[in-house]
Amino acid sequence: xxxxxxxxxxxxxxxxxxxxxxxxxxxxxxxxxxxxxxxxxxxxxxxxxxxxxxxxxxxxxxxxxxxxxxxxxxxxxxxxxxxxxxxxxxxxxxxxxxxxxxxxxxxxxxxxxxxxxxxxxxxxxxxxxxxxxxxxxxxxxxxxxxxxxxxxxxxxxxxxxxxxxxxxxxxxxxxxxxxxxxxxxxxxxxxxxxxxxxxxxxxxxxxxxxxxxxxxxxxxxxxxxxxxxxxxxxxxxxxxxxxxxxxxxxxxxxxxxxxxxxxxxxxxxxxxxxxxxxxxxxxxxxxxxxxxxxxxxxxxxxxxxxxxxxxxxxxxxxxxxxxxxxxxxxxxxxxxxxxxxxxxxxxxxxxxxxxxxxxxxxxxxxxxxxxxxxxxxxxxxxxxxxxxxxxxxxxxxxxxxxxxxxxxxxxxxxxxxxxxxxxxxxxxxxxxxxxxxxxxxxxxxxxxxxxxxxxxxxxxxxxxxxxxxxxxxxxxxxxxxxxxxxxxxxxxxxxxxxxxxxxxxxxxxxxxxxxxxxxxxxxxxxxxx
Length: 529
Hints:
Layout: H1 2-17, E1 54-55, E2 61-62, H2 66-82, H3 97-104, H4 133-145, H5 149-158, E3 161-162, E4 165-166, E5 173-174, H6 184-188, E6 235-241, E7 250-256, H7 258-357, E8 359-360, H8 367-376, H9 400-419, H10 427-439, H11 444-456, H12 465-472, H13 479-488, H14 497-505, H15 515-527
Antiparallel strand pairs: 1-2, 3-4, 5-8, 6-7
Helix pairs in contact: 1-12, 2-4, 2-15, 4-8, 4-10, 8-9, 9-10, 9-11, 14-15
């Protein structure tokens, strides 16, 4: 009977610690004070906006690691979704990554929050609860693999910068006396853009060439002045008979009648006069019309010459006016440029003085994290910064220096873990940076660091959960002491040291989310172990 109870308890704990669970939306019974009831079966905790949170003291929602957990979650989801041989993470989620980023960067100004609403984590500049480097790194990695370069750029540009380099938001500006100092970031954001409008004006007057289109066609008098003729016949026949003794001899003769001939002459003379008068009249009419035609053509030519002169004067005036406008525009732009250069010079001087006399107290973004930014932007961190995307405005150190820092952090992590099997707090972000070095532009140094972490990382208490359940069931009291005693008595590990470290960190008795560990089991086994 006791074995049956222990096995049932083992199943329950493995369901909460080692097995992935279905992601659920926030409990509808959550109170207005941010208190959420502890679920009977462990699932990822979400607040009313759908963001990942922890269960804090007395069930209060804890948003202190929301940004880090969201970065960790979405990086893991992308790796499992895009890596051959890995099973995609199929647990439903109410938010997309874009919606999560909108909540964590509420003003889209590059300033990200640990949690946008839950105090005291809703002040990104708070020293103890502000947006730190640890919160930033997994989120940068996730934005990188999901192609959110604009968001990464805004974040980088918004980070405070002093002579040491970039800093996370969790701090403020301090002067040499240790008191609140001048905000050098505000100087950097000072705009030197002129408000003067130097738009180039143009003379748009209409100089189109006009043409006199009067009709000057030559008209002619085409009257018919045909000469008529009186063609009547004036001849008539007469019979002449000779007298006796020849009176039997008669013959016929034709003669012209004088009166008829006179009448014909008169008629033809009148016709000739009529014809001549018509021709004279036609000639005069055509002379007049030719004169009118010539006068019209001369008038048209004069008008066209006047139009051409008007057109040329107009075009010359436009050219002159546009030259004046261009001169005004160039003078305005030159003045704007001079003012901008003077402003930028003063701005650079003010910023140099400010940075020489003030430092920012936020977490320093060292070479290793600069390399993470560059990998997230799809950039080889070992290339010369002057040839790269120029993420750092000053060379804060990256490249091989950042890779060396990554390797040194692996050694420091291994050394710290040897002293304390419960020390897993720094493993998560170190794993994130190692994963990004494997996914993008691995170097011999980074590959050796990953192998060293896999081979040398000591086992934490998280690698003994199965044996613990066999002995103690789901009872969580004295968890660490009981596992420590079990280890001394010869307990065997049930998972690799990196997986165990992640499981111990996300163990449910701390109010954490065990599924965030299970999300990475296959990922760690593929890329780290």
